Amino acid sequence: MWDVQCAFFCIPTDSKSCRKCPDDEWPNENTDQCIPKSVEFLSYTDDTIVALFSAVSIFCCLLTGLILGVFIHYQDTPIVKANNRNLSYLLLVSIMLSFLCVFLFLGRPVDVTCMLRVTSFGVIFSVAVSSLLAKSIMVCIAFKATKPGSPWKKWMGGTLSNSIMSTCSLVQVIICITWLSISPPFQDRDTHSYQEKIIIQCNEGSVIGFYSVLGYMGFLAVVSFIIAFFARTLPDSFNEAKYITFSMLMFCSVWIAMIPAYLSTKGKDMVSVEIFAIMASSIGLLGCLFYLTEPVQSFSDVFCQRFHE
């Protein structure tokens, strides 16, 4: 009778010893030969959830593009100008790209997609959150500038907001470049977590680099939330801060909940958690900042009136 340990990890060669199967194979039921292990990753052909992720991502990207088209079409109206037109354009483009970067997580990972996964959504979300941070600061400055003789009037305009957004985004770009230069992510084959299958996954390379990207993104979100939170009590003419506060609260909640779920899963379940966090936070930004705000609601009313006519 064969030893249990031998039966699970080896095939017998004689009555006293056994031959261990290679890492990419495992014993069959009779433990008399080695058979190849199955390979696991989020496949376009074998996983239904991939089709769901793809459909939702494409739909949300098109919806974001539609909202961007509405803003561009009415770019000279007071409503769009008051909504900080250039930052709104940049924010909408960033949300569109965040939906598209979901496809980097689908399919069999390779070295290139592994390097682009976290760095792409890290930079994209940093641009989006930096835009919100600039919006929050400009709302506060705009309120202070309304007072007679206020020195804050000289800070009004696009120069300060563009500088804030560019500087904050550039820091994330530097973090990503440093990470890719020192210890970039790469394709990895996990042959030990499961006995019967091999997990094709992305090894993050430098754990410090990975959490630095997420940490900086979280830092920007927290700062933006704090500034918008204190500005939420401004008069209704400056009520954009309320939407930014709620969007950042949702954004932070999604990523805080994602961390324990990410650490407790393996294989394609771990990738699914990342994709869900990206899509949920992107949908939250889109809904809170554009669907609920005055420009889109006003344009929706106009479209409805024309449709009924």
Could you describe the largest sheet, including whether it forms a barrel? 3 strands, mixed
The coarse overall form would be: elongated
User: Which percent band covers the strand fraction?
Assistant: 5-15%
Taken in chain order, the helices and strands follow as HEEEEEHHHHHEEHHHH
Mean pLDDT: 79
Derived from helix and strand composition plus strand pairing, the structural class reads mainly alpha
Number of domains: 2
CATH level-3 fold name of the largest domain: Rhopdopsin 7-helix transmembrane proteins
Query: How many DSSP-defined strands?
Result: 7
Question: What is the level 1 CATH name of the largest domain?
Answer: Mainly Alpha
> How large, in whole angstroms, is the Cα Rg?
25 Å
Question: Oligomeric status of the shown chains?
Answer: single chain
CATH architecture identity of the largest domain = Up-down Bundle
CATH superfamily of the largest domain: Rhodopsin 7-helix transmembrane proteins
Helix count from the secondary structure assignment: 10
> Taking strands numbered 1, 2, ... along the chain, how are they ordered across the largest sheet?
5-7-6
Helix content: 55-70%
Intertermini distance: 85 Å
Which blocks of ≥5 consecutive residues have pLDDT under 50?
Answer: 1-8, 302-309
Notable features of this structure?
single chain, 309 residues, mainly alpha, Rhopdopsin 7-helix transmembrane proteins, 2 domains, three-stranded mixed sheet, two-stranded antiparallel ribbon, 10 helices, 7 strands, 9% strand, elongated, disordered N terminus, disordered C terminus
